[in-house]
Amino acid sequence: MNELRKRKDNSSDIALWNQLRLGNEEAFSSLFERYYSTLVNYGKTLMTGEDRVKDCVQDVFVNIWTYRYKLYKLNEAILVKAYLLSSVRKRIARLHHREHIFSNIKNIDSLEFLFDFSIEDRLIADETTAKKVEQLNKSINQLSDRQKEAIYLRYQYGLAVDQVAEVLNLNYQSTKNLIHRAILQLRKDFPISVLFLLLNFSLN
Questions:
Q1: How distant is the alpha carbon of residue 185 from its chain centre?
Q2: pTM for the whole thing?
């Protein structure tokens, strides 16, 4: 059911995107309204200051509209969501570099992932499960910034590995290895059969 919904959402996004490329203002507004909050939330994992993040997201949409006739046509293999997340990430990286917020930042790969995973205890009635999920959160937060971001994109936003790769500006195999190493690290404390259940608790 969820997979069917994802396919429908993707098809709807692609239709709006391709209408946007032709100058359709309503399609542009629909994509803006659909993804603005998602992009702001993601941006806040990469940069402090909500107003600055909102400015970056708005800049991305301004550029999309300004250069709409030069945008490439997307297909079923490329999520509009992944493209937008990638654009926000690149915009924030350029801002970091320009303002010298971090003296050692030289490229997009050096971005610090600021999000800490946490759970909603009230959503978990079973005390034993709640404790396990809390332990999992701690384990996830001990991963590297890049591993945490990959897990966040994979399980919070439901991106496929190739789509995570696009956002992180990595090739497919490197991204697959990154996620695999993160999962292996978490499996030291949690059996794989429980891991994905707990990840769903942790990220929702």
A1: 21
A2: 0.74
Residues of the chain with pLDDT under 70: 1-10, 75-78, 98-112, 114-126, 128-130, 191-204
Decide if 13 contacts 81 (C-beta within 8 A): yes
Domains in the chain, start-ordered, CATH in brackets? 2-110 (1.10.1740), 121-203 (1.10.10.10)
Look up residue 117 and give its two tokens: 């995973």
Identity of the residue numbered 186: L
For residues 118 and 126, is the Cβ–Cβ distance under 8 A? Answer: no
The phi and psi torsions of 143 (rounded to 5 degrees) equal: -70, 165
With the C-alpha atoms ordered 67, 73, 74, 77, is the resulting torsion angle positive or negative?
negative
